[in-house]
Amino acid sequence: MNTAEQYLKAIYLVQQVENGPAATGRLADSLDVSPASANEMIGKLEDRGLADHEKYKGVTLTDEGIERARDSLQTYCIIERFLVEVLGVEDFRTEASQLESVIDETVAERLDTIIDREPQCPDCFAPDEDVCALLDPDGGAAD
């Protein structure tokens, strides 16, 4: 199940890659949902003032949406890095995706103290690779 926070994060990352509005189809693909489901959640995000959707152009985040997306992305990076650096989890992307909707801000802050998050987070996230750039592709911490 994809939460509003996961949609915000996905829209933000697609906007980074595309350097413009996130196409609904691309968003649906990145979240592994139907375009109809993506449109439904985009409508909810619009109602909350977090996104703007223009038919045939795509969806963009409002300033508040960007802030929430960056917070969500930072939490995701913290989870990823904790799974790799502390627990040595090989399939950390799948685990992080499953955990991100159930980890609250307090737990994320506590995990953050263990991993010693870098100050550039969440700008350290590489949207094309869908992984924190501070992690090496073999699943370890980058030097």
UniProtKB/TrEMBL annotation:
Classification via Gene3D superfamilies: Winged helix-like DNA-binding domain superfamily/Winged helix DNA-binding domain (1.10.10.10)
SUPFAM superfamilies (UniProt xref): Iron-dependent repressor protein, dimerization domain (SSF47979), Winged helix' DNA-binding domain (SSF46785)
Keywords of this entry: DNA-binding, Transcription, Transcription regulation
UniProt key word Transcription regulation: yes
Top-level taxonomic group: Archaea
Start and end residues of each HTH dtxR-type domain: 1-62
Family matches, as Pfam families: Fe_dep_repr_C (PF02742), Fe_dep_repress (PF01325)
GO MF annotation terms: DNA binding; DNA-binding transcription factor activity; protein dimerization activity; transition metal ion binding
Family recorded in the similarity comment: Belongs to the DtxR/MntR family.
Alphabetical list of PANTHER family matching this protein: IRON (METAL) DEPENDENT REPRESSOR, DTXR FAMILY, IRON-DEPENDENT TRANSCRIPTIONAL REGULATOR
Protein name: Metal-dependent transcriptional regulator
Organism encoding this protein: Halococcus dombrowskii
